């Protein structure tokens, strides 16, 4: 089947209703994790006209940034999607919705792949956003106003990637740039904690962090503890946590907040952090810590 990637949707919605899962004829289960994205492609294909095997299909890439397992990062988008395209002839203008969670490595890599192919600077994307024909629409209100029009224009224009080279490409920061001037004290015990203020599990984790002492006895010697807390919604911390995921080879099921990193290990989620944090500190985890990409250590 012939396809063209006509529409890219990038959206970041934090914690919504816990455990939500909605199914309808327009797309896959709203609670489906990124690992099921290929299933979305298969499911969407099933509603297309089977009589025309050469029919082009408009791929709609939906990117959301959802850090916790109980969050639903897709529900608001599907509400807008259904309303905007409710009177569009989907047999004449078929599409597929593929969803990726950019908080996880696989989703972020897909976003970078799409942005690179279009030559779209990542800093121009302020989630939630829609990208179509080289144009960017930021915010849910703008998505609702422009989705149908740009959807139909994408069909009229054919393959919209022809203008991609006209847009300047943006290189993501390297490891050295992300952690430039960040140096861990080798004789200290370093703990790096990533969180979000609206994340339920992060709120539950706070009492455990508050109990971390300023010093701890390691092999009979007092060692200072450096607790570094990074909100993934601030500055370049979203890129920084992605770098930690890669460096520590964190599997996608553990790519979440809250998460705590030590020298060569981590604890992900309240179920690991709650019972495991104090034990890790007592074992001296965090001694000799280096930031990802550091040439020392």
Number of strands: 10
Strand order of the largest sheet: 3-2-1-4-5
**Roughly what is the average pLDDT, rounded to an integer?**
75
**Domain module tally:** 2
Order of helices and strands: EHEHEHEEHHEHEEHEEH
Spatial gap, N to C terminus: 51 Å
| Rounded Rg | 22 Å
Percent of residues in helical segments?
Answer: 25-40%
Q: Write down the oligomeric state.
A: single chain
Strand content: 15-25%
Q: Helical stretch count?
A: 8
Features:
5-stranded mixed sheet, 20% strand, disordered N terminus, 2 domains, 297 residues, Glutaredoxin, alpha/beta
Topology of helices and strands:
Blueprint: E1 3-10, H1 37-45, E2 57-64, H2 75-84, E3 95-101, H3 105-118, E4 129-132, E5 135-138, H4 140-157, H5 175-178, E6 189-195, H6 200-210, E7 215-218, E8 221-231, H7 237-247, E9 259-261, E10 266-268, H8 270-282
Parallel strand pairs: 1-2, 2-3, 6-8
Antiparallel strand pairs: 1-4, 4-5, 6-9, 7-8, 9-10
Helix pairs in contact: 2-4, 6-8
Describe this structure in words.
The structure is a single chain. The protein has 2 domains: 3-166, no CATH class; 176-282, Glutaredoxin, CATH 3.40.30.10. 30% of the residues lie in helices and 20% in strands. The protein has 8 helices and 10 strands. It starts with a strand and ends in a 15-residue tail after the last helix. With 297 residues, the chain is an alpha/beta fold. The radius of gyration is 22 Å and the shape is elongated. The longest helix is centred in the middle third of the chain and has 18 residues, at 140-157.
């Amino acid at each position: 089947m012939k396809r063209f990637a006509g529409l890219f949707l990038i959206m970041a919605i934090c914690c919504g209703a816990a455990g939500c899962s909605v199914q309808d004829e327009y797309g896959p289960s709203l609670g489906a994790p990124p690992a099921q994205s290929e299933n979305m492609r298969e499911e969407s294909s099933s509603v297309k006209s089977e009589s025309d095997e050469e029919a082009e299909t408009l791929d709609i890439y939906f990117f959301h940034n959802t850090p916790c397992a109980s969050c639903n990062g897709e529900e608001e988008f599907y509400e807008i999607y259904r309303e905007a395209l409710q009177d569009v002839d989907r047999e004449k203008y078929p599409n597929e919705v593929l969803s990726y969670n950019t908080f996880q490595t696989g989703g972020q890599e897909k976003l970078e792949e799409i942005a690179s192919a279009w030559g779209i600077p990542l800093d121009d994307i302020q989630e939630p956003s829609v990208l179509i024909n080289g144009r960017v629409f930021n915010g849910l209100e703008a998505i609702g106003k422009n989705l149908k029009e740009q959807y139909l224009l994408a069909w009229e224009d054919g393959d919209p990637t022809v203008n991609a080279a006209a847009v300047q490409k943006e290189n993501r920061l390297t490891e050295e740039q992300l952690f430039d001037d960040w140096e861990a004290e080798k004789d200290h015990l370093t703990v790096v904690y990533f969180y979000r203020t609206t994340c339920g599990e992060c709120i539950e984790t706070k009492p455990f962090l508050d109990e971390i002492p300023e010093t701890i006895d390691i092999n009979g010697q007092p060692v200072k503890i450096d607790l570094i807390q990074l909100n993934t919604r601030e500055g370049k911390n979203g890129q920084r946590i992605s770098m930690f995921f890669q460096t520590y080879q964190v599997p996608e099921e553990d790519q979440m907040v809250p998460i705590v990193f030590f020298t060569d290990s981590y604890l992900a989620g309240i179920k690991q952090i709650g019972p495991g944090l104090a034990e890790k500190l007592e074992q001296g985890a965090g001694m000799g810590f280096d930031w990802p990409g550091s040439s020392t250590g």
